[in-house]
Structure formats: C-alpha cells, structure tokens
Design a protein that fits this description.
31% helix; 16 helices; five-stranded parallel sheet; 18 strands; seven-stranded mixed sheet; 482 residues; alpha/beta
Length: 482
C-alpha cells in the first residue's frame, strides 16, 4: 500500500508549464486573525431561511443560488456599483457544489466531489487571487485498468506512453512512436464522419484503449454505451503523444490553501451590501409572497424548474452518489496511490475513488501526519439526485432550446439566467466565473444594473477591462464526464 501523499507537482519539465509557481493571493479573513482550517460558523439569521429577518425589505438585486455564478455577480454589484444584494439558497451552506469542510476526523473533504481549479483566462485568475491564498497543484489521474491478460494495472489517464506499454505490451519511447501507435490502431468512421461516440472514440484512440478505458466507463457514467451518445462526447478525448501526465493543460492550476469555501466567505460574507439566507427555497418564498422587493433577479438554478408551470418535460441530467468511508488504519497511511483513481472496468459499479488526504491544502495536522486514518469517496453515477451533468443528445438539445426561448421572452429588464444549470451546460469553475463576470459586464453596459459608482465603472470600461460577453456556445466543453 502507498506510504505517502501523491506528489502535488508533475515531473519535470511539465511542472514548469504551470504558471502558479508558489503560494500567492490574499485571504482577508486569515489576515484579520482567523486561524481556523474549517469554514466559518454562519450566524443563526443566515441559516434560518427566514426572509423576515433580512435587514432590508428592498434590495437592488435578488440572487437565487450561492454558488460561483451568484456570488461573483453579488460581489461585482457591490464592489463596482455599490448595489445591495440578497442571496438565497435552499441548501444549508454557501459555495454551491464547490463547498468543502473539515470533517470530524480533521480531513478536508468536498461535499459534492473533488474540485480542481484550472484556467487559461488571466482575468479569472487575477480575479480569484483577491479571495484566497493559492498553492500550485498539477492534477494527475490514475486508472486501475485490465491489461491484455485481464490483470488490473495502475496506469496514467489520459493515456500516455506508460499506459499503452503497460496495458498492451508496446514499447513506445518517444513522441514519434506514440503518433505511430495511434496511426496504427485508429479506425476511421465508416461514413467518413463519426455518427456517434463509439465511432468517434475508435477514430481517436483505436479499439484497445476504447475497450479497456472508455467503453464501459462511459456506460457507467451515462448509463449509455458510446454508440448511444453524440459523437461530440468522445471527439474531445485527449490523445497525448508526449509524457505529460497532467489532466489539464491550462496555464494556471492551483488549490485554495484553506479550501474552496474560504473563497466564498471572503467574496460575500464580509460585505455589508450583501445578505444571505440559506435553507430558503425561492419558489416557496415566491408562492408565499415573502420575497423582498427587488430591482433585478439573477437566477442560477435549473432553467426547467423556473418554467415548471409550463408543463414541459424536464431536462435530463446525470447525478452522483457519494459513498464515503473512513479507513482508520490504512497500511502506510493511505488507501490508494493517488488522489483520484478511475475504475473503467465493468466489474465495479463505481466510476472512481477519491482520497482527499493526498491534497496539499489539507489542514496542518493532516500534512504533519497527525491524522492516522484516511477518507475515501466512491462515486456512483445516477439518473436521480442533484443535477450535475447535462446529457448530450439531440432530444435534450431541442428541449433546452424551447426553454431558452421561454427565457428570452421574459422581461430582460427584470431577470437574467446565469450559470451551468440555467444554461444547461457543464461549466468548469473558471468558465462559470468568467461567464458571471461577463454577464455582469453586459448587464451593466445595457443599463440593466444601475450603478451607484458610475465613475469607477466608466474607468473600467475605458481601460478595456469590460469585454463582450461570450455566449453559451462559445465555451468549450467542461471537465464533466467525457
């Protein structure tokens, strides 16, 4: 069994491709003297769900959802325009799916699965440096995959030289030899263009890797074989020809030193212009007439839930069930060799196991070896539960366009639909942040958010910091199930 944490940095020279070189950023809560590793304890009014306890009966902006999209827009409205916001969320915590916490064993875990921050957008990176200290982290994944003899081997995913050599007895030693391997095994689509994900995968990685890694993993993740999914799902399979093990290729890759929840605490909890009420369902409050008066609504929830009264079918999502297990005395201190180990074979129902203790942003006691046990989380893909991943097929695309048309018919001077659930598109964290920042830019420029600090906003515009808003289709696919 493993005896130490999986290295946080990739082997040279690929570690140098990450532009995050050391600890950076600012944590205002830590600077103010708070030395706790766990999230802040929220006040009773915040978690009460009682809108009558709000200090304002009228706010400039009502925001549904305390995830990245909602909190970024609330922060921008306050800091740039001096506007007041009320954020409501039916969950009992802030941070949306990014929420993490320190459990009873002293280990930092993520309630909704592992989150790895990475971005190619400098604007996003510079923005996020305001709300946390960050440490560099090169995410690398291993898979326990059957080889040609059916014996499970631990190999890098996405596949690199080591993967095909270990699984199939190849002897790839260079980039040129890896290119030659792919050229040898690839199967062109019968009609010239891939009509489904099976044809796409075979044309990208060939039958050996397809059968060993991608076919059954896709079935577990989507409850559909690749032949039943759009070609677009598998056309983005990474085909590495070098030895770069990093899962992501973005310029900035890092972890928040004190966890993701700290980002939201610095973003909205200490701002007097922003109030938060958790355990508060927007639709119930709307039905009971308890919502405060507001000038503009930012809705970040599922778009089909907003239009439920229309009687249209619900959009299809895949969800995840997490089966957590605390292992009190693992041999060597760890359960597995890496933080994330994928299980693509069909004999295991779960898709992967995450072991949080490997992460370098664990509390100091964990890093110093004072926590003897470890926490693992097995992930099972499901049809029911919290919506995670939109299911990419033609039926869902057509249905979403109907919802999109309904959203377009809403009074755009009063409401804006923002984020992954409202857009029915899986966003990475950085994409959600950029989408929220650009939505704020667009709403302000169109006069839908009225500033109380016009001069500051004009200065931002003159300096070119407010760019045109990207449309939903402009974002590349996120890092959801491939």
């Amino acid at each position: 069994m493993p005896t130490g944490p999986f290295a946080a940095r990739a082997p040279p020279p690929h570690d140098s491709l990450n532009r995050v070189c050391g600890q950076c950023g600012r944590d205002a809560i830590h600077e103010a003297g708070n030395r706790e590793d766990a999230p802040l304890e929220l006040g009773p009014e915040i978690v009460s769900g009682d809108l009558k306890t709000c200090t304002r009966r009228k706010v400039d902006v009502l925001i549904v959802g305390s995830g990245l999209s909602g909190c970024v827009i609330a922060e921008r409205c306050s800091k740039q325009l001096g506007m007041t916001s009320l954020i409501i969320d039916k969950r009992d915590h802030i941070g949306g799916n990014c929420y993490d916490f320190v459990n009873n064993h002293g280990i930092r875990e993520s309630k909704y699965g592992a989150h790895l921050f990475h971005t190619q957008f400098e604007r996003v990176w510079e923005y996020m440096l305001q709300f946390s200290e960050w440490i560099p982290f090169d995410h690398r994944v291993r898979g326990r995959v059957p080889d040609s003899n059916g014996v499970k081997q631990l190999v890098p995913i996405p596949p690199i030289h080591e993967t095909v050599n270990t699984l199939f007895g190849e002897n790839v030693k260079s980039e040129e030899e890896m290119i030659a391997y792919y050229n040898k095994v690839r199967v062109p689509p019968p009609g010239g263009e891939a009509k489904n994900s099976e044809e796409a995968a075979l044309s990208r990685v060939g039958p050996q890797l397809y059968e060993a890694i991608f076919k059954n993993y896709t079935k577990k993740q989507w409850d559909k074989y690749p032949a039943e999914l759009d070609a677009s799902v598998m056309m983005r399979l990474p085909c590495r020809t070098n030895t770069d093990e990093r899962y992501f290729g973005d310029s900035w890759q890092a972890l928040p030193l004190r966890g993701y929840t700290r980002i939201f605490e610095n973003m909205v909890l200490t701002d007097s212009n922003i109030e938060i009420r958790l355990n508060c369902d927007f639709f119930e409050a709307q039905r009971h007439g308890t919502l405060p008066e507001y000038g503009f609504l930012i809705y970040t929830g599922p778009i089909d839930a907003y239009f439920a009264a229309q009687g249209m079918p619900r959009l299809e999502y895949r969800s995840i069930r997490f089966e957590n297990e605390f292992v009190p005395e693992p041999e060597g201190g760890f359960f597995q060799e890496a933080m994330v180990v994928n299980y693509p074979a069909p004999d295991e129902a779960f898709t992967r196991i995450v072991e949080y203790k490997h992460l370098p942003n664990q509390p100091r006691a964990v890093l110093e070896g004072k926590v003897p046990g470890t926490l693992i989380a097995r992930e099972y893909s499901m049809a029911d539960g919290d919506p995670y991943y939109p299911v990419p097929n033609e039926e869902n695309r057509k249905l979403y366009e109907r919802y999109r048309a309904l959203a377009a018919d809403e009074d755009s001077s009063k409401i804006c639909f923002v984020g992954r659930l409202a857009s029915y598109k899986y966003f990475n964290m950085d994409q959600a942040i950029l989408n929220a920042l650009e939505t704020f830019d667009s709403l302000r420029e169109n006069g839908k958010l009225r500033p109380k600090r016009q001069q500051e906003f004009d200065s931002l515009k003159e300096n070119g910091k407010l760019g045109p808003k990207r449309q939903r289709e402009d974002f590349r696919p996120g890092d959801g199930p491939k």
